[in-house]
């Protein structure tokens, strides 16, 4: 296989290119499959809705009780103004326990009983509401086409709008983004809730499906809140885990609904809890839209978010007002009024999703992430409140069951302790609180025994009833323990979740806020020292990352400016040195070619005059001194470094002359490979010359050391002696030291004088690096 490896390596780029070319095609195939699946799901949802609508149509023309009940015999608040429910608002949310003094076992018995009655027939029902059992007369009514359109038609039309809105977005957008999928799931869940809503009032075929979809609605809305306008954690593997847990919780909630469907004491608190969860999901979605609106600057996306906000506000506020208002009015609510405001949500949100279909995903801003963490903490607190609400409501309902059971036990005890003469009276009191068929049969058996004067048989039947109530009390105690344990576990779990969220919040603040601030502080400190090559590296894509990019861009710009300044300064130093050298050359030539020549001519003339007998010797001597002075000026204007000698030779020669004249030992360490630019040679020589002169003039040294060396990129000239030294802070700065500092400043160099009384003196000239080419900065 070894010989084939080069060919495989050669084919790898081709394979990668082919895969990259095929990726859009695979993505398109995956999107087409999802669209096909969406069409099938929507078709199934609509088919279920059509079946429910057909079941409702079968009720047209039949007599019904005049009110609607759930499968667990609870009277709902849905109704029309023409129904008898308007006159008997007391029965809203009550449980039907009997018809015409007969216990009611199943909700379907109501329709069977009412179907045999003429229109407007008064029927006596027994209801239970909290701990009270009461009788109420309600007139039966014929279920008309208007009733059908108001109840089943409203639900069906609204459900179709939800289903088609979700499908329309899936078919309309180019790429199935996470927000589109989440919106589709939410729309189909709501469509199932609405399309099977009419079946809640009979024949109860799709009641489990209704509560399953109802349980999934808050989860789907939270899914949408985490996906629109931009998906949260789309590149994280934990997103799928979170979504899986979210929908697993919804499935567990649906299972609890199924288990508690026949127990009103647990069913109603759970129903209210899901309503609270749905309102909470709507609040989180609204908060997410508001936070995203404050961080997104794109006009198209902002317009889409505004449309989605309008959908939430209109549908949520209108529905909220209805839910809050109609219980206070103590009357039924029309399905049209209850359902149709909800249609605003899918219509406006679908338009928003289509509007941003070509938008590109952006990184989550720091404000958004911290706000989401805060909302998570608020969410946990809300869930704790929901758990406490469910606990209190369940306990209240349980207390009502205890109260009613105690009342039944008390009436049974009065019968057992009473006399046969009052037996029928006590049996009537017991019968007024009956809820089940078994209890009714036992009371009827006791009544028959009393009429037959069979008192032992009557007591035996009522004794069985008492045992039943004792067993029910034991069941209620067990239920209370179950509620307490479940609520305690739930609250403890939520508290632990809250503590975990607090720890997560602290870690997130440290990672997202404190750590980037520290990195930026360190980076700006490094940049402040002059190291403009340093760059800030943050592994995020938020405001701090953009700030780091700005800092890096600023450092890059400052580096380019510093490069230009360095080049300009170097050019300036070269130009200044060249100008000084040129001026000295010009003065030297002028003095030599004019003044000096003239003086020499005068000297010759005077010599000739002296030969003729005139005594001009004093003038000649004076002229000779003047010529000598001028020669020294010319020599100073044109020192050896401008001639054939190098800087090392010139400094060494000058130092040897001074050392011999003052009997001073000399140590010179100037390597021949170390040099300074031509334009700086004169000033460096002058500084060395002045340092040597000051040493022999003021310090009386025994040894003078001269060094020229490199320290990194800098060139250092150091003249030191072991003379008397002086106190630098108290010394008068003569023209020599000031001249050296001026020359050093002109070179862009640093002049340091290190001295102390009795410790000698060191003069150190530090020349900056000479850059032969521009400074190259590292770019990100």
How would you describe this structure to a colleague?
The protein is of the alpha+beta class. Among the domains are: 11-59 and 148-359, Rhopdopsin 7-helix transmembrane proteins; 397-524, no CATH class; 646-780, Heat Shock Protein 90 (2-Layer Sandwich), CATH 3.30.565. It is 66% helix and 8% strand. The protein is built from 19 helices and eleven strands. The longest helix is centred in the middle third of the chain and has 74 residues, at 455-528. It starts with a helix and ends in a 13-residue tail after the last strand.
Tags for this model:
Heat Shock Protein 90; alpha+beta; 780 residues; Rhopdopsin 7-helix transmembrane proteins; 5-stranded mixed β-sheet; 4-stranded antiparallel β-sheet
Number of helices: 19
Radius of gyration: 51 Å
Helix content: 55-70%
Q: What percent strand?
A: 5-15%
Report the biggest beta sheet as strand number plus sense, adding barrel if it closes. 5 strands, mixed
Q: What sort of overall outline do the alpha carbons produce when their principal axes are compared? A: rod-shaped
The secondary structure category is alpha+beta
Low-confidence stretches: 1-29, 358-363, 772-780
N- to C-terminal separation? Answer: 42 Å
Briefly summarize what is shown.
The chain is α+β, with helices and mostly antiparallel strands and about 775 residues long. It is about 65% helix and about 10% strand.
Present the secondary structure layout:
Elements: H1 5-57, E1 63-64, E2 95-99, E3 102-103, H2 108-114, E4 122-129, E5 132-139, E6 141-142, H3 145-172, H4 178-195, H5 207-225, H6 238-259, H7 264-295, H8 299-329, H9 335-339, H10 344-355, H11 366-417, H12 423-431, H13 437-451, H14 455-528, H15 543-611, H16 617-637, H17 647-662, E7 665-669, H18 678-699, E8 703-711, E9 714-721, H19 735-747, E10 750-755, E11 761-767
